[in-house]
Amino acid sequence: MVEIRIHGRGGQGGVTLAKLIATSRFLRGMSVQAFGLYAAERSGAPVQAFCRFDDDTIVNRNLIYEPDHVVVLDPTLIGPAIVGGLKPGGWILLNVPEDPERFASEYPANLVATVDATAIAREHGLGTRSVPIVNTALAGAVARILDFPLEEVVEAVRHLGFSDANVAAATDAYNAVATKKPVSVPTPSDNGSARPGAVQPTLTFLEGGGGSLPLVKTGQWASEQPARQQYVPPCNHVCPAGNDVQGFLHALAEDRVDDALEILLRTTPFPSTCGRVCPAPCMASCNRIELDGAVNVRQLERYAGDRGNVSLVPAERRSQRIAIVGSGPAGLTAAYHLALFGYGVTVYEAGSQLGGLLRTGIPEFRLPHDILDMEIGRILDLGVETITGVFVKRERLLKLAQSHDAVLVATGLQELRGLNLGVADAEMVVQGIDFLDRVRSGDHDIRLDGEDVVVVGGGNTAMDAARSSLRLGAKSVRVVYRRTRNEMPAIAEEIDEALEEGVIMDFLTQPVAIERMAQADGDLGEHHIICRRMELGEPDDSGRRRPVEVPDSDYAVGCHRIILALGQSPDITVFPEGTEVHEGSELLGILETPVYAVGDLATNDGTVTAAIGSGRRAALHIHQTLTGEVLVEDGQARVRSDVDVWHDEVIKSDALRMHLFERQGVTEGAALEPERRRTTFDEIHAGLTDPSEAKRCLSCGVCNECDICITYCPEGVLKRVGHDLVFDYAYCKGCGICVTECPRNVVFMSQL
Amino acid sequence: MPVEIVTGNHAAGYTLAVAGEANRNARGATCGIYPITPQTEIVEKVAAFPFTKGRVVPVESEHSAMGVAIGGSLGGARSFTASSSNGLAYMVENIMVAGFYRLPIVMVAVNRTLGPPWNIWADQGDTLMLRDFPWIQFYCSDNQEVTDLTMLAFRLAEDHRILLPVLVSMDAFILSHTLQETDLPTQEQADRYLPDLELPHRMRHDDPKTLGGLVWPDATTTLRMESHEAMLQVPAAYEQCRTTFKDVFGRDPGAALDTFHTDDADTVLVASGTVATTAREVVKRRRAAGEKVGLVKIRMFRPFPEQALRDACASAVKVGVLDRDYAAGVGGVWWQDTRAAFQGRRDDLLIQGYLVGIGGGDVTPETVDRVLDDLGGRDAAGGPVWTDMKPEEVVA
Question: What's the CA gap between A707 and A720, in Å, rounded?
Fold first, then answer.
């Protein structure tokens, strides 16, 4: 019996070569076997095939351990392993262009034959240029070294239905094979050198010693290739300030606090402020909600703002000067960006202190003044000049326009909405904004001890006024709101906290009058506020359902003080008659100087973060108008340098591989107990003690260099170079495991 | 059909197909197909066959693959499928149904280790799991046996004395993926060998009835006894099928078991599948050296050929049973059945079990030598011997 072992790589046709050899013997009437050694190999892995033939019926079924001959399909497999168990004097047939002499010293106990089957297969167009199919050529070579007539192998090739090109390849190889007799003539007992476990000579060219054998560029076998892509994370998409939320979270996740702050300061000068008072639409849109709750972005922004340290250096000073009216978040944000661009900026503020509503309208238990002062100080350090105590009216605005290269008006919402409740003491009805300002400016010296307070409205001012009232000693605080909680514009967390602290809320309630009830004993008695029940009707222009009065539903609530928080509207008398207000567009055509309205004055969005975004856009627009330099606003979302495909669409959770993420609950910072809160204007929230919450960020659609793809790449063809992910396409077979293992959909397969 | 060089899978798939096609003048053929390594090529071969009449139905699981065969068979079609390993485990409920429905279904199984641990190589534990099912079972030693027993299985199953499904098994890769010269049946031969299928209890749309519904214990017992009676008829029916096979194909598919040098043997090995052919070489060599050893290769596992086995071991004092399977807490399945065959009849006989090639380990002549050496030194049988373990690895 003759036994042959074939060394090849998965996909090269080793089993077919075994079948070709077996068929040529079978056609001569011999008993044959041909089989492979099967496991979980993929294309390109080293594999073995075997062939047996004998004149007698073959009955043994075990593997071949001591072959009579070996054939090597792939030059890269040439090494000690191929002669393991090989019987002395047996043939070693190698698919290489070199002369067999080249290998004589490595295999002294065996006959060596070589044939360039790869070149022959290419010449006859067998397989592809990159993956030639060499088995029919090698079948011809085997026939030659084993002294089978050429006709027999040709007959086998035809018997198995192969084409004429294969017959030609077998014939060429049959004629081209070169042989070398053994250096030492083996004797039957001299079989030690080839036994398994015996030390075998190592071929130097496999270690880069100067040989010309090609490595197998397995990448040429690929029909698909992985590449990198990036989507827009939902948090970045919805942030009104335009912050790179994913970016600063990524920096925090790696405990790079200064870098996180630097990323935030690219867009906003108020991270510590927004980290306390922002309604955080980023959290409402967070894909992690589906898993175990949104990432606590607000607290993480606060962490970066409070703890980060970044030195800002403005650009070289420019000659142009910009006037900004109003020092709220919109005006100061515009001032910040314009100062960074190098412009001379002067901010005019009617009040005595900077900050606008940030200072006057948000109580200290939510936003301590030292935090606000710190962030405003960072803006002033850029060289921004300020003039306080100056109320800019129409005439002054026209003068500013003449003396500056651009004017921004960011006066916010100054017109307070009232409510006619009939006769009452002037002291008794107060506007919420005024109330909060008075509380702040008097350093909390007002006392409401024993009073029943009614707050009318459903926004943050209503919540802040109600909660401040509690802290000032009010006996009871009741918020009346004409819609339901679902329609309340206030931040949900603030509503929750107000309820925790003991604020009562009457929904679907509208105050209609104030009465003073004389008591039987002659006492003047308490005021009563007469309330009317409402129900929700059809949606109005704002999309919210319109409250409709319920007939005969009036009821009285005793109270000592009524605080109105019904919203504000812009005071546009600063502009000349007939001016239309548009955000970021030129207002006064009669003037050469562009004048911009920004912030709530223009947008009425009513949030700090929207005002910041408006101020920044205005600054960018002014810069573009003055210099012609176009600044790509969404550039901040594109944070990687080596992405192949940019998607402008927002990535949703269904595009993430959620099952690859581990559950990890939200981290909340410490907060004062509700009982304690009622007695102090100290800040409620202590903030996070470490940035680990940022590690919960899924980094949706943006590579965060988790390198799972590199870990799972079975071929080792992926590596990271700096921030770049480098695919070695010469060896990547396109298995796609990197794609299926990427939890954030950053790697995709592209057809070749 | 000339002799071809084909794999066991090719032989099985082709033979199933021509057998099914041979029923084209009656109710045709049906086959439910679902892939699993290492049998997938069988159902691929069947799916590619241009049947004149019938349906090959790709389904979503092995359970349904057998379901298709059951439905097709009840409708009078010659029905078959193929599976392996954990696929068979998932199919089990319907395998039982096919048996007690008395349907002449033929299934080719490629013996693959049942996971876990995951393992694709040869081990008979998957089909031997079905040993108590009302199925006739054959185990093959080469591709020719795969071909011949698959063909014979239809004639045997459809014999009205039998009406039991037949399982034809082959070792994973060692047969399923190994090319070997094989004499394949022509369609003309299959047509001659296999009469049109006539199922006595065939379901007809114009005569609806319920099969396998709720019955009392006595009816269940009756049906079990009928299956047992049919099993008892198998050896005689098999011999008749074998004789007819020789007439049509000109070769012998073999008896329920083959004996080799057993006539005067004092030591007899019992083996099946490809292990038996390797053992045969060792016995041949030892015979030449003067040892009185013999071999029984069992082809038919169900019904177990007890009498033939007793006859073959008449002169033996020691019997070694080679099992490529493991029955938990017991040892080899073949060993158990061998012991049962001699229970109360040859209590002087030493019957020792050996576990060889578990999980697809290569069974070499050296393996068989170790078995015979162990057996020769024994005074009494003991627990199963794990031959693939090196002595230092055995934990007492």
Answer: 8
- Pseudo-torsion of CA B320, B324, B328, B334, nearest 10°? -50
Domain boundary among A567, A595, A622: A567
Residue A347 lies in a domain: yes
Query: Which of A33, A38, A59 lies at the smallest CB-CB distance from B173?
Result: A38
CA distance B358 to B112: 10
Domains and CATH numbers, chain B: 3-249 (3.40.50.970), 257-393 (3.40.50.920)
- For residue A228, give its domain range: 217-311+640-752
Give the chain B residue whose CA is nearest to the CA of A65: B364
Asked whether residue A316 is domain-assigned, the answer is no
A28 and A134 assigned to the same domain:
yes
| pLDDT single digits (tens) B180-235 | 999 999 999 999 999 999 999 999 989 888 888 888 999 999 999 999 999 999 99
Exposed / middle / buried, residue A389 (Cβ in 10 Å: 0-12, 13-18, 19+):
exposed
Question: Mind listing the pLDDT tens digit for each residue in A439-497?
Answer: 888 777 788 888 899 999 999 999 999 999 999 999 999 999 999 998 898 998 899 99
Q: Which of A518, A551, A567 is the last residue of a domain?
A: A567
Both tokens of residue A615? 């101020």
Residue ranges in chain B modelled with pLDDT below 50:
392-396
- Which chain B residues touch A if contact means CB-CB below 8 Å? 3, 5, 38, 120, 171, 173-174, 177-181, 274-275, 277-278, 280-281, 362-365
**Omega of the bond prior to A67 within 30 degrees of 0, cis?**
no
Is residue A429 domain-resident?
no
Confidence of residue A280 (pLDDT cuts 50, 70, 90): very high
Q: Are residues A248 and A344 in the same domain?
A: no
Q: Supply the pTM of this predicted model.
A: 0.56
Contact list in B for residue A63 (CB cut-off 8 A) is: 362, 364
Whether B365 and A26 lie within 8 Å, measured CB to CB = no
**Residue in chain A nearest B275 by alpha carbon:** A61
Interchain CB distance below 8 Å, A34 and B179: yes
Let me know whether A206 and A241 are in one domain.
no
Q: Are residues A133 and A173 in the same domain?
A: yes
DSSP reduced 3-state for B236: helix
Give A3's contacts in chain B (Cβ within 8 Å). none
Flag if A19 and B5 touch (Cβ within 8 Å).
yes
**How many Å apart are CA A190 and CA B179, to the nearest integer?**
33
Q: Bridge-partner residues for A724, per DSSP? A: A721
Three-point CA angle A506, A512, A516, nearest 5°: 100
| Residue A442 falls inside a structural domain | no
- Taking one residue from A and the other from B, the number of pairs with CB-CB distance under 8 angstroms is 59
